[in-house]
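re the bet — no i am not wrong, look at it urself. input seq straight from the record:
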Amino acid sequence: MLPVIVLAIWQTIGAMNIVSATILPTPLMIGKAFIGLVISGELFSHLQISVFRAALGFLLGAGLGLLLGTLVGFFSRAEQTLDPALQMLRTIPHLAVMPLFILWFGFGELSKVLLIAKGAFFPVYLNTFLGIRGVDAKLFEVARILEFNKIKLVTTLILPAAMPNILLGIRLSLGIAWLGLVVAELMGSSEGVGYMIMDARQFTQTDIVFVGIIIFALVGKATDSLVRYLESKLLKWRENYKGEGAM
């Protein structure tokens, strides 16, 4: 109900010309711009390349994050060797490394994908590491008494216990991949939703800017819901507090 009220107020303010349409177009104008972009095929063309970039960067970054997070989580020597350098890299903002990526890899797809991967890497890395290190030490004693081998120890004890953290890392990683996509598409792009937004800004087409922002929000929410669905399936064994009034 609240979104409907907000949209009604927004439309009324726009229709009364209280705020210029250049600054804040009405929901109706944004809807018309959206339909126009869909009919022309322009929206799907930009969305297709953006989804491809984000998916590739996410898979690369999250895959490496899972791999190195597992390695560092299991082996303290790997933690001492890799973790300090990775923590330093984590604090470097996207905008700071963007010029370097352009110098090294040019304006092509590689620099964009690597920039997205940089952002997607750290949430998965950190949460995998914390998930493994957060396993109750008493469970290892139980595994030792039951004479679990290494493979059984990992598959039946450590990974299930670390899974909530790993899935949380994947959710955060997906969100950051979309944020990184916007920065990446500022790097001399000629297509993509980020480029569409920047191009519309230059021509003061605020309604198209809003369409791009809404597309980012919808796709981001859809990917987050997918991970939450997987989480509910993979962690259905877990009994935890769901809040007052939950079914």
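see?? DSSP finds ten helices and no strands in the chain. told u. also The radius of gyration is 23 Å. so pay up
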